[in-house]
Amino acid sequence: KLQELPKVRKQVVGPIEIFRFADGLDITLMILGLLASLVNGACLPVMSLILGEMSDNLISGCLVKTNTTIYRNCTQSQEKMNEDMIMLTLYYVGIGVTALIFGYIQISFWVMTAARQTKRIRKQFFHSVLAQDISWFDSCDIGELNTRMTDDINKINDGIGDKIALLFQNMSTFSVGLAIGLVKGWKLTLVTLSTSPLIIASAAIFSRIVISLSSKELNAYSKAGAVAEEVLSSIRTVIAFGAQEKEIQRYTQNLKDAKDVGIKKAIASKLSLGAVYFFMNGTYGLAFWYGTSLILSGEPDYTIGTVLAVFFSVIHSSYCIGAAAPNFETFTIARGAAFNIFHIIDKKPTIDNFSTTGYKLECIEGTVEFKNVSFSYPSRPSIKILKGLNLKIKPGETVALVGPNGSGKSTAVQLLQRLYDPDDGFITVDGNDIRTLNVQHYRKHFGVVSQEPVLFGTTINNNIRYGQDGVTNEDIEKAAKEANAYDFIMEFPKKFNTLVGEKGAQMSGGQKQRIAIARALVRNPKILILDEATSALDTESESVVQAALVKDIKKADEQIESAYSAEKDTSSIPLCSVNSMKSDFTDKFDESTQYKETNLPEVSLLKIFKLYKSEWPSVVLGTLASVLNGTVHPVFSIIFAKIVTMFENDDKTTLKHDAEIYSMIFVILGVICFVSYFIQGLFYGRAGEILTMRLRHLAFKAMLYQATGSRVGVLTQNAINMGLSVIISFIYGWEMTLLILSIAPVLAFTGMIETAAMTGFANKDKQELMRAGKIATEAVENIRTIMSLTREKAFEQMYEETLQTQHRNTLKKAQITGICYAFSHAFIYFAYAVGFRFGIYLIQAGRMTPEGMFIVFTAIAYGAMAIGETLVLAPEYSRAKSGAAHLFALLEKKPTIDSYSQEGKKTDICEGNLEFREVSFFYPSRPDVLILRSLSLSIEKGKTVAFVGSSGCGKSTSVQLLQRFYDPVKGQVLFDGVDAKELNVQWLRSQIAIVSQEPVLFNCSIADNIAYGDNSRVVSMNEIREVAKAANIHSFIEGLPEKYNTHVGLKGTQLSGGQKQRLAIARALLRKPKILLLDEATSALDNESEKVVQHALDKVSKGRTCVVVTHRLSTIQNADLIVVLHNGKIKEQGTHQELLRNRDIYFKLVNAQSVQ
């Protein structure tokens, strides 16, 4: 515990260090922005000097109160007073112009420099992530990494932009105000300042609490984000096993933690505000009471003007401490976020993928030697995978590594590519220790094809081009022909420009494999590594591809094949097969078309507020507190005017009495502030956090950060404040109020422009950052493939290009924000100038009293402050609306097949009779490619039916239709004679279990992964062991240090392919299904495991309807019916012996495999 403490304390970077990515131009912009902030900050205290002068002029110098309440001219001529007032009014105009120019500079320059630095941080962070070695990825949570890449860097951007400008502006106001106060009246200044320590202490204490709660909240949200990403990327498996409810609970649990912390944070931040306002109102009372005492005791140089100038200068100073707190908090949060980001940027990998050091061999002959190599994965150091391996491979040799699952075949291959370094011993190529060679240059000599090939979400052409820089289209076509991929590619309407979908989701397993082989061949590699390269291919393709590979081996210097004698094995290359983050829960998982940003529905405020329906008691109480709080400033303006004008009376006793009464009222207003802010925090905070949790829960990741409770409070408070201010102003001086209000629309118009611009930018930013995020996610999730292909730089370049558009938008945004801020800020001073000039005229004309003028002024000033505060929320409001639009688009999207639907029949018993009746089908994203063409087939209950045929003929598609992931375009799929569309979809899926070619495992323990098979009940440990034994994985699990509690890693990366496959089989068996779907279920197993598993599958398929998709014909000889598919139609069907007698397609396939 003690050792952890310093680490926790230092979880922020230094205030200067956060700007370490600034260049010369940035430093210039920051300095100019800083100077502009200081000038702008001085405007407010200087204004209080002019206000003091005006008050003196009005009350003492030129107007004498006679017995009647009429004002008449006296000693000072009207002209002299007019001259003075015009002069003072011009000062106001001057301050306004200053605020306009410097306000624009401070905001736009800081927003620009923040954008420039953030862009650099994003690039550097992504570069650093790509530079890390594989062992780092093994132990880090990819979902959390993606959250860091977006959320944390956004926080840095928020903290180093205009918030810094406002922070320095506040500091300037504080210093100048204090100086004016001390010069004009040091006694009153010191008394007024006496409460400052209390204000600062309360703000600091609460600020500390809020920061610590913020980091806890962030952690909870990033955990929830990691769960969401894992689940959405494995959505088919989740749905197939009916685990939606279980996953929602897992996600919601993390949200609950975040909600509890969030409520505490809301209360703490409101209490902080309440305490500041309580002490400030107390200070008002104290200052006026003491100021009156000084004037009454005849202290020299103390007039009501002096008291006002000192008071407002000091109050503005104190107010700025309060106003600076949120900006300081944002800056501190940014420093906290930067700690994590910079930590990764500065992390020096053991094997740096971008390293320029190391020897570059001009040509590799191909002598490979493993000398006494021992190795264990850094994430599991207790399990030795290689124990003193010695192996020599001569140039031009083909070497096959065979052995049971987990024996270290794929590990040896990964060490050879230098994805890891050995713990002991070393590997040499042509006599050079590979650790002395340049990593990128060395890896370029390899061609790697692995068992679960990773394709990127782009065209077929680009995927093959990733193999080698600068290859021509002819080279690509040649490689495609050699990999037997050319024919199927040319059948697509867009041929080589066909999009493969995210993770290659649009392609069948065999098609993906052949594209990956073409990608390896186009590299013309010196060393070719085939890690189960042909496991997903049908027999015909396999023989063609094997021939191409053999031919290529003659060019390559050597080939290392990871396999079993004549049969196939798996690799432990832990490539992720992850579907799109944005996959819909139910429909069209394969669509590569991204969630379109365009045509988002317009969201009304009423619709957003309706979301609060179940929290209405909290909202009502919070709103009442806001209403109460909104009355404080208008009441203040009346008391303030009464204090200023009470000096028209020269009776000292009355003055003393009035001063005491008014001072007490200020204290009461302080108490009201404190109580109402606490109630707001408690109820709005609760409502807001519950709503956020509910929306995240509903959308499961359509994030709506902004439209939560506390903002509603600010808006209500400001509305009441503005409304009351206007009413009071009309009562005390309707003409002047009308004049000031006539200017107000200009301010509102500025706000509208800002809001509209910000909404546009918020949407564009979201789009571009999502695009960049998608590239980053794809790179990080498929990092092994990227390293093997040495494509790190290509991904970095794509990422940078995507950031460029967002960067340009931000620079435009900086100008608009700067102009709108400057205008709304300077406008107050112009309004004062006009108002005072008109007010003097009204007083001289006898149509208004000085008291009335001060009330109107103060009330409108506070009203304007409320407008200003509301306008500050414009960008947040626009982001909230944009978020709400995305959220409603997601929530209102009606899936074609609703996984949550309660409708449809649930029959008492499912016998397992299946029928395809005239079924035609194409994928929604590729309507021009018909996969199944009028397929008709009956499968009797308890029978085993096998689908065979070349890749892309519709075998796996048929399996997906049985699970009702899709509905046929034409025809029907029937279960026990009932159309699948009429059955309850959850009930239907609960009758089916699937073991697929690329099994998806979750980042939890082995026991949890097996128990995932049945999410409708709590599964006992005995049952888990039984199915593990049946799937021939029990003894392997028992050999692990943590046995069934061993974590399998993200997507099961800690296990070999065969081990993953057997876990998936155990998971399916646990379901006790009526219908068992085996989609290449044993393709990843070695001979021995396959026999045992096949025996287990034969045993468990008795009495169940079994549909098998396979290329390996030896596994289906005993099937009751074998169906040969070709181009989506049944070419022939029958038992193994019948089909052999036909001497047609099946006969040729069997012969091809026997020869092999």
Automatic annotation (TrEMBL):
Regions that span the bilayer: 29-51, 90-113, 164-183, 189-211, 271-290, 302-325, 619-641, 661-684, 712-732, 738-761, 818-840, 852-874
This protein's GO CC annotations: mitochondrial inner membrane
Record Pfam families: ABC_membrane, ABC_tran
Keyword tRNA processing among record annotations: no
Keyword terms, alphabetized: ATP-binding, Glycoprotein, Membrane, Nucleotide-binding, Repeat, Translocase, Transmembrane, Transmembrane helix, Transport
Source domain of life: Eukaryota
Membrane topology: Multi-pass membrane protein
Domain ABC transmembrane type-1: 31-332, 620-879
Protein's cellular compartments: Membrane
Name under which the protein is recorded: ABC-type xenobiotic transporter
Biological source species: Muntiacus reevesi
Lineage of the species this protein comes from: Eukaryota, Metazoa, Chordata, Craniata, Vertebrata
